[in-house]
Design the sequence.
């Protein structure tokens, strides 16, 4: 069973506030990902990391930033939250189990509402 | 063009019946992998099954099987003997060899199992 954690699970915050969504995994996975998902819709990759000090932007433009100072930790920060940031944010990580299989393990998600 | 297409936005199925969720994909990469994930209303993403493009046999995991038709570029998920707990969103995803471990996601199918 995968051990990947996200906090908080739910967050309601006012416009203009700075927020950090936490993601941690205890599996030693090098690769980590952040997805944004509106209810009932597909996932959009917003950030990913292949290891410590490696971060890249994903396909969906996002005003958030990420950091990867430790292997197990991949926080996402919004400097100034806006109602358009209201969404679910899913963190994932992946090992290299065998050639060809790069399964991603997901955290429980953070449901963010910006009022 | 859509790389992953799930044509069924929603499905209702009677409990204990088998159900097939459609997924077609588009890639010119000879090496790729196909994944199915389940997302219950609680929001977490649960990995179900994987099929590699070079795998000779269709993947199976318990009640889940993947009907892989490479020439038609389809990778349908079959759930046998459906249960009420199978009610969820189901996402098909693809990883291409040159994608740097990223997954491309379909829009999902909402499956509701009726008692």
Sequence:
């Amino acid at each position: 069973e995968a051990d990947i954690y996200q906090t908080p699970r739910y967050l309601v915050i006012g416009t203009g506030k700075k927020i950090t969504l936490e993601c941690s995994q205890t599996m030693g996975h090098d690769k980590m990902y952040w997805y944004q998902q509106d209810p009932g819709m597909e996932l959009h990759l917003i950030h990913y990391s292949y290891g410590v000090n490696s971060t890249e932007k994903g396909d969906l433009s996002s005003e958030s930033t990420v950091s990867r100072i430790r292997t197990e930790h991949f926080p996402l920060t919004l400097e100034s939250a806006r109602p358009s940031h209201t969404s679910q944010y899913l963190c994932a990580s992946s090992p290299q189990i065998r050639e060809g299989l790069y399964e991603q393990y997901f955290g429980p998600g953070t449901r963010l509402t910006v009022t | 063009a859509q790389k992953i297409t799930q044509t069924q936005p929603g499905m209702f199925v009677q409990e204990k019946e088998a159900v097939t969720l459609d997924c077609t994909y588009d890639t010119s990469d000879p090496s790729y992998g196909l994944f199915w994930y389940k997302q219950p209303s609680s929001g977490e993403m649960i990995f179900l099954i994987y099929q590699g493009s070079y795998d000779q046999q269709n993947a199976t995991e318990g009640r889940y099987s993947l009907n892989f038709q490479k020439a038609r570029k389809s990778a349908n998920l079959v759930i046998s003997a459906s249960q009420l707990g199978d009610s969820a969103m189901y996402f098909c995803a693809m990883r291409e060899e040159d994608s740097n471990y990223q997954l491309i996601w379909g829009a999902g199918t909402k499956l509701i199992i009726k008692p």
In short: The mean pLDDT of chain A is 90. Chain A touches chain B through 26 residues (CB under 8 Å). Residues 51 and 106 of chain A are 17 Å apart (CA to CA). DSSP finds no helices and eleven strands in chain A.
